[in-house]
Design a protein that fits this description.
five-stranded antiparallel β-sheet; 12 strands
Length: 257
């Protein structure tokens, strides 16, 4: 399902232009993951880079991302988004299972948590067999993107090898037959992003033209500055309770890329 390197870069670039913003803003919705600015229960599993609070490798990158979020908070009308705490910032590499599907899976398989950990460990064990150079993938911040329920920063690979490493990891995960047997399948094209905030119940009052202009101005400024780069050295499976709480554990499967 995932695209070639060049198709991916072209698609993400298309998502950062003002005309695309104008179209997407017609379809934004309140996120069901938050109520009155607070995260609600939304349990599940994901494969991600360590959240900002645990990531010592990318401190400068996340410092800059936090500054960007703060500037957006100052420019966007209050109450339009529920902004995520910077310590929860992370890059999701493979969505797995969440919310009602996760709750149903636990009911059907009482040892589901152990099974999903075993499946992901198996995928990680198979990944090193792929003959790729031993360099950590690097992805650069490219621009702000509008998702149906969230405002995010999009990332593109710094080179084709960085892209291929992540796509091969996703294949090792999503083509794992034991994981498919648990009812987990790939559902989306990969769009590398870090979420800054989710749209709130107040979006009916959003000035969409102004919002699109703010995002475009941010993207124009980034074209004139040194790209901010996220280094992806370690990836792990984590359980989450909601969209700000990703639980560390000594028995979470991990892999160094």
């Amino acid at each position: 399902m995932d695209e070639t390197y060049q198709i991916y870069v072209n698609r993400v670039a298309q998502l950062t232009i003002q005309a695309t913003y104008q179209t997407q803003l017609q379809n934004i919705q309140k996120s069901p993951k938050f109520e009155q600015g607070k995260a609600i229960s939304f349990p599940g599993y994901t494969v991600l880079t360590p959240p900002q609070i645990d990531d010592t490798l990318n401190r400068e990158f996340y410092y800059q991302l936090q500054a960007i979020q703060q500037q957006l908070i100052e420019q966007i009308e209050p109450g339009m988004l529920t902004w995520l705490p910077p310590e929860s910032f992370h890059l999701t590499l493979a969505d797995l299972i969440w919310d009602k599907r996760y709750q149903e899976a636990v009911q059907d398989h009482p040892s589901f948590d152990d099974k999903i950990k075993a499946c992901i460990q198996h995928s990680f064990d198979n990944y090193p067999k792929i003959n790729l150079e031993n360099n950590e993938p690097k992805w650069q911040l490219f621009g702000l993107l509008i998702f149906p329920r969230a405002l995010v920063v999009g990332l593109v690979p710094c080179d084709e090898l960085s892209y291929e490493k992540i796509i091969q990891l996703r294949r090792a995960i999503y083509q794992n037959m034991d994981l498919i047997g648990l009812g987990i399948q790939q559902q989306y094209h990969f769009t590398a992003h870090i979420t800054l905030g989710y749209f709130s119940e107040n979006i009916s009052n959003l000035n969409r033209d102004k919002f699109a202009s703010i995002l475009t101005n941010f993207n124009d400024k980034w074209l004139e500055t040194e790209p901010q780069v996220l280094k992806i050295r370690e990836v792990e499976l984590r359980k989450f309770e909601d969209m700000i709480t990703y639980l560390p554990s000594d028995d979470n499967p991990k892999i160094e890329l």
